[in-house]
Amino acid sequence: QVQLVESGGGLVQAGDSLRLSCAASGRPLSSYNMGWFRQAPGKEREFVAAISWGGGSTYYADSVKGRFTISRDKFKNTVYLQMNSLKPEDTAVYYCAADPRGLGRTKNEYAYWGQGTQVTVSS
C-alpha cells in the first residue's frame, strides 16, 4: 500500500505560481497512475490533472489547461503540480491520489489519497 503526503500549498496573490509536491512511501509511484484533485468549501472534490504511471499521458480539467502542469520524478518518488497564473477560483484543498488501474478523471477511480494541502489565492 502506498502512502501519500502533499506539500507546497500556501497563500499567494492572483497571478502568482505555486508548485505542489506529492511524496510517496511504501511503494514506488511508478506502479501507479496519479491524479490531483481539489475541493473548495461547500463544493464537491473535482478533478484537476492526471498522469499515467510512465508519464506518457496527461489529462487536465478545462479550467486549468494551459496554466497547470503535472509531472512525476520516479527517482524522488514524487509527483508535482506546477500551478501558474493562479486565480482566486483556484482556492481549495488540493489532494493527490494514486491508483494501479486505469488513468482516471473521477475521484471514484483512485484508491489511495493524501491528506491535502491548502491553496489560497487572494485577488
Task: Write up this protein.
It is built from no helices and 11 strands. By secondary structure, it is mainly β. Strand 4 and strand 5 form a beta hairpin. It starts with a strand and ends with a strand.
Write a brief caption for the model.
This protein has 123 residues and is mainly beta. The chain contains no helices and eleven strands.
Notable features of this structure?
mainly beta, globular, 7-stranded mixed β-sheet, 123 residues, 50% strand
Computed CA radius of gyration, to the nearest angstrom:
13 Å
Q: Assign an overall shape.
A: globular
Q: Kindly name the structural category.
A: mainly beta
Q: What is the N-to-C order of secondary-structure elements (H for helix, E for strand)? A: EEEEEEEEEEE
Arithmetic mean pLDDT: 96
List low-pLDDT spans: none
Largest sheet: 7 strands, mixed
Structure summary, number of beta strands: 11
Helical residues, percent: under 10%
Give the count of helical stretches: 0
Distance between the termini: 40 Å
SS strand fraction:
over 45%
Give the topology, please.
Elements: E1 3-7, E2 10-13, E3 18-25, E4 33-39, E5 46-51, E6 58-60, E7 68-73, E8 78-83, E9 92-99, E10 112-113, E11 117-122
